[in-house]
């Protein structure tokens, strides 16, 4: 996988990071995307639920499918949070 050019000093919710991560994620092969999702989930699993949800929200902003897949891997139901988008 390519190294993502992310500003390490920027907050995780920085919109610029989301705008950068999405296109990189979409460039990855399905296998690379799956590996990335599993790695992200492994890093987040020990965190409290609120922090996991904030992280998933940020990944969702970067790429909707990435956010959904990370949520799925963490067993987070996004339905209550996405109902207003219908």
UniProtKB/TrEMBL annotation:
It comes from the Bacteria. One of its GO terms (molecular function) is heme binding. InterPro entries: Catalase_immune_responsive, Catalase_sf. Gene3D superfamilies: 1.20.1370.60. Residues 24-74 form the Catalase immune-responsive domain. Signal peptide: none annotated. This is Catalase immune-responsive domain-containing protein.
């Amino acid at each position: 996988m390519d190294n993502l050019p992310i500003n390490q000093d920027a907050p995780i919710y920085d919109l610029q990071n989301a705008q950068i991560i999405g296109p990189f994620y979409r460039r990855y092969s399905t296998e690379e995307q799956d590996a990335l999702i599993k790695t992200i989930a492994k890093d987040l699993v020990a965190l409290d639920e609120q922090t996991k949800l904030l992280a998933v929200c940020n990944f969702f902003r970067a790429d909707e499918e990435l956010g959904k897949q990370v949520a799925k891997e963490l067993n987070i139901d996004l339905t209550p949070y996405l109902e207003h988008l219908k």
